[in-house]
């Protein structure tokens, strides 16, 4: 009987089998690894329970915004005018953010914003084709959190939505911070001065929290923009001055704690 020695064919078969199993192992490891795509999928799943109301009388604009938000997993509700928006807002108590156009029939964005602010602190992003400073200031006076002029990049809009929701829907961790009789409950989103509650807009609340957390530190306008408005904000630094003015007014005598550093920015400092 002829002795069977491993020939070239057997060696190639064995080598090919080894190569196959190496490739299979690598494929399985890749599937199990948590990369950017996996993290993206997890984020989309988490966002599915977050509702955003998009209000614009232009159906194409609503569709554009909705499509980009849907890619992030958000549940998007639509309204074609201000009256329809208020009906949806009162009917659905779980709306986490409102994206609101200014110029609309029946009831414009300013009126919608006023009515929402009478009963809710839900973050509001205002969209407008009018980029005049007085319009922007009017929006902030009414409690608008972000102001975006048309035309805009949908990706930038989504980035701002993500940034606002990250801060408004959690991550506060139940922190309570206090300075000079001002108490800020970040989890409950409540501010009290000497025990009395004070009504602040979402952005005013964020600004006050940032000031208190950085007591005694001179903060440039650029640094405030980066930390409170996020790095993707492309607006004018005068936005900060407008919010500081309103915040000082609402804080009453405590507003003096926010001191202007001329040529630089602001510093929060409690009198000793």
Quick recap:
The protein is α/β, with parallel strands linked by helices and 272 residues long. It has helices spanning 8-32, 36-47, 59-71, 82-91, 109-117, 133-141, 154-168, 202-213, 221-229, 238-251; strands at 51-55, 75-79, 95-101, 124-128, 146-149, 176-179, 182-185, 190-193, 196-198, 219-220, 258-261, 265-268.
First-last Cα distance? 104 Å
**Physical arrangement of strands within the biggest beta sheet:** 2-1-3-4-5
Spell out the CATH superfamily of the largest domain.
Response regulator
Largest sheet: 5 strands, parallel
Content of β-strand: 15-25%
Average pLDDT over all residues: 80
- Strand tally is 12
Order of helix and strand elements from N to C terminus: HHEHEHEHEHEHEEEEHEHHEE
- The CATH class label of the largest domain is Alpha Beta
Q: Which structural traits does this protein have?
A:
2 domains; Rossmann fold; globular; 10 helices; single chain; Arc Repressor Mutant, subunit A; 272 residues; 12 strands
Please write out the topology.
Elements: H1 8-32, H2 36-47, E1 51-55, H3 59-71, E2 75-79, H4 82-91, E3 95-101, H5 109-117, E4 124-128, H6 133-141, E5 146-149, H7 154-168, E6 176-179, E7 182-185, E8 190-193, E9 196-198, H8 202-213, E10 219-220, H9 221-229, H10 238-251, E11 258-261, E12 265-268
Parallel strand pairs: 1-2, 1-3, 3-4, 4-5
Antiparallel strand pairs: 6-7, 7-8, 8-9, 10-12, 11-12
Helix pairs in contact: 3-7, 4-5, 8-9, 8-10
């Amino acid at each position: 009987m002829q002795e069977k020695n491993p020939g070239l064919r057997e060696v190639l078969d064995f080598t090919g089998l080894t190569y196959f199993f190496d490739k299979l192992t690598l494929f399985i490891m890749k599937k199990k690894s948590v990369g950017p795509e996996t993290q993206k999928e997890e984020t989309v799943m988490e966002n599915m329970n977050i509702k955003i109301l998009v209000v614009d009388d232009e159906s194409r604009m609503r569709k554009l915004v909705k499509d980009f938000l849907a890619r992030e997993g958000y549940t998007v509700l639509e309204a074609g005018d201000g009256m329809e928006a208020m009906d949806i807002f009162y009917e659905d108590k779980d709306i986490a953010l409102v994206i609101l156009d200014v110029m609309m029939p029946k009831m414009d964005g300013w009126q919608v914003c006023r009515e929402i602010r009478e009963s809710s602190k839900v973050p509001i992003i205002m969209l407008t084709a009018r980029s005049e400073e007085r319009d922007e200031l009017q929006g902030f006076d009414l409690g608008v959190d972000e102001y975006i002029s048309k035309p805009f990049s949908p990706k930038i809009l989504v980035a701002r939505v993500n940034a606002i929701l990250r801060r408004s829907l959690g991550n506060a961790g139940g922190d309570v911070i206090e300075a000079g009789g001002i108490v800020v409950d970040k989890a409950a989103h409540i501010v009290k001065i000497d025990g009395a509650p004070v009504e602040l807009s979402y952005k005013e609340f964020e600004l006050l929290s940032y000031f208190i957390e950085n007591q005694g530190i001179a903060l440039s306008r650029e640094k405030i923009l980066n930390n409170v408005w996020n790095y993707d904000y492309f607006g004018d630094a005068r936005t900060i001055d407008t919010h500081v003015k309103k915040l000082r007014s609402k804080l009453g005598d405590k507003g003096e704690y926010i001191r202007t550093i001329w040529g630089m920015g602001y510093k929060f400092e409690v009198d000793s």
